[in-house]
Amino acid sequence: MPALKFSRMAALCFLFLPCMAHAADLLGYLTDADGRYAGPSVEDNIALMDTDKNGFADVFEVRVYLERLHGKGYEKELLDKMEASAKGQSCGTPFAKPIYH
To answer: Is 51 inside a domain boundary?
Structure first.
């Protein structure tokens, strides 16, 4: 039994080591020489998404931005649900479903 526990732990370590190395590279990229965060701010990212320049990024603008970065269909199910909610089409009651679908 102890060998089994060790092999599971070893497998987990081998799975996460590449991720940890990648995270360290990313952290090095996003920090300056003093170790302070130097990446884009939340405001910077929202400004990039806010195409109509109204001061906030709605779900429709977020989808366009994310699909531009990650490809068409990125997080489709989640963004579909968010867009349905934004359009007022997310009522979960059985009698409302024929109205929206």
So the answer is: no
State which residues form the domain around 100. 56-101
Q: In 3-state terms, what secondary structure has residue 60?
A: helix
Tokens in use for 89?
């089409």
Q: Indicate the pLDDT class of residue 35, thresholds 50, 70 and 90.
A: confident
Number of domains present in the structure of the chain: 2
Per the listing, tokens 């102890």 go with: 2
Residue located via tokens 């990446």 = 39
Q: What is the DSSP string of 1-50?
A: -HHHHHHHHHHHHHHHHHHHHHHHHHHHHHB-TTS-B-S--HHHHHHHH-
How many whole angstroms separate alpha carbon 26 and alpha carbon 55?
29
Q: What's the whole-number mean pLDDT along residues 7-31?
A: 56
Nearest-angstrom CA–CA distance, 19 and 28: 14
How many other C-beta atoms are found inside a 10 Å radius of the C-beta of residue 57?
A: 19
